[in-house]
Amino acid sequence: MPSNTTTDGLPQGAITFRGRGLAVTDGRRLSLHVCPECSHKNDARAAEKGYCNWCAYVPSPADAVPVSGSR
C-alpha cells in the first residue's frame, strides 16, 4: 500500500469517487476521510495516508469528482 497518494491530475479541494466517499486534495496530497467502498470513516492519521484503513481501498483518479460548491 502507498504511504500517501499523490493527486496528479485530480481536482483540488473536496472530492468524491463517483459520488461516494469523501476526500480532500491539497497540492499533491490526498486525504481519504470517508471510504467510497466500505463507507467507513478514517481517523485523521489514517486519512493522511490516502487509503482506507478499514478495507485498504486505494482511490482511483479516474473516479474522482469535485464536490458541488468546492473550489
UniProtKB/TrEMBL annotation:
User: What is the protein's name according to its record?
Assistant: Uncharacterized protein
